[in-house]
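Model it.
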Amino acid sequence: MLLVSIRASRLSSGERLLVLRVHVFRVPSRVAKQLATICTVVAACSALVLFLCASTAGAQSPGPKAYVGLFGDNAMAVVDTASNQVLSTIPVPDGPHGVVITPDDKRVYVSSDGASTVSVIDTTSDRVISSIEVGQTPHGLAITPDGSRVLVAGFGTDMVSAIDTNTNKITWRVAVPNPHNFAISPDGQTAYVASQKAGSPSLAILSLPGQKQVGSVPLPNTPRALNFSPDATQMWFTEAGVDEVQVLDPTTNKVITTIPVGVSPHHPLFTPDGQLGLVVSQGPGELWLLDPATDTSTATVKVGDMPHWIATTPDGQTAYVTNESSNDVSVVDLTTATVIDTIPVGNAPRKIVVQSAAPQASTNAVNIVQFAFNPATITVAHGQSITWTNSDPVQHTTTSDSPGWDSGPLSTNATFTTTFNTPGTFAYHCSIHPFIHGTVVVTS
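Modeled.
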């Protein structure tokens, strides 16, 4: 008869050591069968414990989420930046083009150039909670530093529209021929618009408080993407067919110098502290690192094929670069100028935004205990979720009085979660014990 014992221990290096001990001795056949069964169960349980311990040891808390517009999939990929894994995809109308995130990280706005809408995504539930009609073929988006307005480049309507983020309604429009992308000044007062009108490309200058165009910078070539430095002393932009970054002085609206880079530069960006400039060169598939103090290049990093857009972490240490033709995102350590990871995300990734902080665990919880909902009334913001937990020794349900949600029978310690996307007051009950009542209040 063989008996096998299993013991696990952790080495100083953190690795797990699995020790098997084998004992051989003679026992009656009936006893041997019983012992064999016991040994099999013990071995299986030991293996399960080891697996669970290893899984727990390797687990990590979720990080800030990145939202990537998948132009080829008509969806947004949601990426956990702690694990660099895609968490989910969110369907949106055809051609996700512009993407911005509110300063509080709670909402993402996505324009769809194959439609006429801007979708609003709640980052708690990662669902579309609103759709705003803006006119045909919306291109780029920009958000004011205070998060109060989202600007929409209506390429097909020759209009720039401003969305009030409190109401998600358009509050004003300004005529601009074929607007494509934006740069908003750090003080939120001025927007430069890349106007791609054939034969007369320019940068249209808008006063945001005045809600009107106040100037224009004629250009020899079609403008592509643009961004302000954090100190507002420079505004960088790129042009089609020009392998240089254009450096504009906003006080004179003159191009004061250019920075030679790789073939077909697209999106220029500054790190939040303004100490480093970045631009993607689509031809060679490179991220160029630039010194804003000298307007010169300092390094290049090979990324994926046809890089399109850049987002950085708040500390300016890491950049995320979407690669439209290789269907992935390059994660670049800007301190060493190296790619540290590549994330497959889906077809034709273009725009990307990254939350400034990791999502916080939801505190919207209702406990079913002693035949009551606790709390009896709970208030949440629209787009947030509530989780019910049954702590009683008998089954309960959470069921809306009017059509809405129904958990079905919940056994002891079972949970049920649902998301509320419509403001209002909703009464609910336990269908097994109808005398148990509760109320959900959803604010706008």
